[in-house]
Design a protein that fits this description.
The protein has helices at 3-26, 44-57, 74-77, 121-133, 153-161, 176-191, 222-230, 242-250, 254-257, 262-279; strands spanning 29-37, 62-66, 86-88, 91-93, 95-96, 102-105, 140-146, 167-172, 196-201, 206-207, 214-215, 234-237. An eight-stranded mixed beta sheet has the order 5-6-2-7-1-8-9-12, sandwiched between helices. A two-stranded antiparallel ribbon has the order 3-4. It has a single domain (15-279), classed as Rossmann fold (3-Layer(aba) Sandwich), CATH 3.40.50. The protein is an alpha/beta fold.
Length: 294
């Protein structure tokens, strides 16, 4: 047997062992939800972080997999920049963020924040497989998977590795360009048999903090219109608030710092719809008693 054949066989054994461990790890997680978008710049990662915080405030055990290999930003938004993943006999442990949220990201494995990841598809698939199989996620109520924009390697890898995934949340903004590409994200989910939990329209108008007047900076109603055209649920609209950017830069999730703002109230309504969807997935009721609510 040649060295090349032996290497292929060994790689195959490693992949089979990882897939076995992946199933064991994922059995301890009640619900897995991916957050995707048709294009970049729509605030997908920001929404992922604030959804996670909102669920954690409501008493859920939450994890975030930052599957954006080339542009990981979740650690920065949660104030975890510079942290490293710890290794023990059971495997690799996630970083622990606010409210006990367990976080895994390529950012934790890089020597510094300026180091680029220059990988092709197979390497990204291998990394995501390891994130799901080698990480000791533990018992979780919800794992949110923040995916890069588009319908390429990372979203496809996650869909293949987690066929039991509960569904996807699609983030868009009201502009016509974003409406065009979000249709691709919806079709991507449908072709792979992934339930579309719903569409979130981010940056849906600016509400003046002084007079309360709403200004439609990027038009309005695009997300709801796409939902109706594609036959998928519309989860809600989140208005622009400059403090969202400020909170993200400081590593303090917006919804925890400004819970009475219009944007936070919109997020809370969206959370309730997601809870309702997950409660109807045929598993144990998606709720936890005796915990604080937003």
């Amino acid at each position: 047997m040649s060295n090349e054949t032996e290497a292929v066989d060994e790689r195959g054994k490693i992949i089979k062992e990882q897939e076995k461990m992946l199933k064991i790890r994922m059995q301890k997680i009640k619900h897995k939800v991916a957050v995707i978008s048709g294009k970049g710049g729509v605030g997908k990662s920001t929404i992922t972080v604030n959804l996670a915080i909102a669920f954690a405030i409501n008493g859920y055990r939450v994890g975030i997999l930052d599957a954006d290999i080339h542009g990981p930003s979740i650690p920065k938004m949660l104030g975890l920049s510079g942290q490293r993943l710890e290794v023990g006999p059971p495997g690799i442990f996630p970083a622990i963020g606010p409210l006990g949220i367990r976080v895994v990201s390529m950012d934790f494995l890089l020597p510094d924040e300026n180091t680029p990841i220059i990988w092709r598809g197979p390497l990204k698939m291998a990394a995501i497989r390891q994130f799901l199989s080698d990480i000791v996620w533990g018992e979780l109520d919800l794992l949110l998977i923040d995916l890069p924009p588009g319908t390429g390697d990372e979203p496809l890898s996650v869909a293949q590795l987690l066929p039991e995934m509960d569904g996807v949340i699609i983030v868009t903004i009201p502009s016509e360009v974003s409406q065009i590409v979000v249709k691709k994200a919806v079709m991507f989910a449908k072709r792979l048999g992934l339930p579309v939990i719903g569409v979130i329209e981010n940056m849906s108008g600016f509400i003046c903090p002084k007079c309360g007047t709403k200004i439609d900076v990027f038009q309005s109603g695009g997300g709801k219109r796409i939902s109706e055209e594609m036959g998928v649920p519309f989860l809600g609209s989140i208005p622009i608030d400059q403090r969202i950017c400020e909170s993200s830069d400081k590593g303090i999730p917006f919804i925890a710092e400004h819970k009475n703002s219009p944007a936070s109230k919109a997020l809370i309504e969206i959370i309730q719809k997601i809870e309702q969807f997950l409660s109807c997935r045929g598993k144990s009721k998606f709720s936890r008693e005796g915990e604080g609510k937003i």
